[in-house]
Amino acid sequence: MAINTTPALEADGLVKTYSTGRGKPPIRALDGLSFAADAGTVFGLLGPNGAGKSTTIKILSTLAKADAGRATVAGIDVSRHPARVRKAIGFVAQKPVSDPVDTGRENLVLAGRLQGLSAPDARARAAELLDRFGLGDAADRQVKTYSGGMARKLDVAIGLMNRPQVLFLDEPTTGLDPEARAELWAEIEKMTRIENMTVLLTTHYLEEADRLAARLAIVDHGTVVARGTPEELKNGLRGDAVIIELAPDSDPAYALAALANVEALREIGADGRTIRARADLGAATLPQALAALELAGLPVASATVARPSLDDVYLRHTGRTLSKAQNHALENAS
Ligand SMILES: Nc1ncnc2c1ncn2[C@@H]1O[C@H](COP(=O)(O)OP(=O)(O)OP(=O)(O)O)[C@@H](O)[C@H]1O
Fold first, then answer.
1. Could you tell me the pTM of the whole model?
2. Given the DSSP bridges, would you call strands 274-279 and 266-271 parallel, antiparallel or unpaired?
């Protein structure tokens, strides 16, 4: 059997600039962004708000045009054959698409009809998806009576009505409580398997990328700064993270100077009172680090050793933690 090696999704050097009004400098949302995703897998684009994830999805789903670069979806060039691309994809936007006064079933059937299904096919597919997403009992209730998690599942089901080869999920769990988020993650995993499709997921949740994405690209300022499986990215860091929270009366600059003498520590940095460093054997190195701080008369509030996380990967490639970048993006937006 011939193996299909064409990536299900490919972005090559995408550039997109938005003009922001007279006299104001344009925003370069994408700055040569490239990645490729294999068929039948979940590919994650991870980055804070404003990194360029939605713009990438919009270009790949033909809702926006790139200024430069090339993109293909299911092997189809998005700028040359947008209509063909639209037939091959499903799109779940950040904002809900369902009509709150219609029932879940009515929303699904209407979406299916708009996507070109016959009435019987749309009804059958709606029933199948309602069942799959555990919405069978609520199928004939108005969507305005649904919980946030149920409404989000319905949005995803709407994106699946036409059995897409590629599904775009733009921050699918933003705004959901942890329980609803975990439930939707399980649904996304199951659905990718059952429907045998490729999913492009954007997220600013590290845990979500770690859990769902077979491979991911970390996006910062419109470009990919790191890519690989979550494990490859974490293993690339070598060693454990050593995190020391200084007590309020400890000066981080003095702490950095004191820790520079601990040979086993490397990549030592301070973010406010939080000192982060790496060590091959974190548990053995931590006592040495604490001793060096004590010798310098610098009290510590808490200390931990952790296996590398995607946040460490993010920090390595962008110089800041994802939560910090996310807060910064939200402050700029407000
Ligand atoms: N229509 C637009 N007009 C002007 N600027 C825009 C427009 N859309 C996006 N931008 C800007 O482009 C940059 C990238 O935005 P984009 O929405 O792609 O990022 P994101 O990573 O998806 O973040 P979010 O999760 O907030 O959507 C941001 O600086 C954003 O403010």
1. 0.82
2. antiparallel
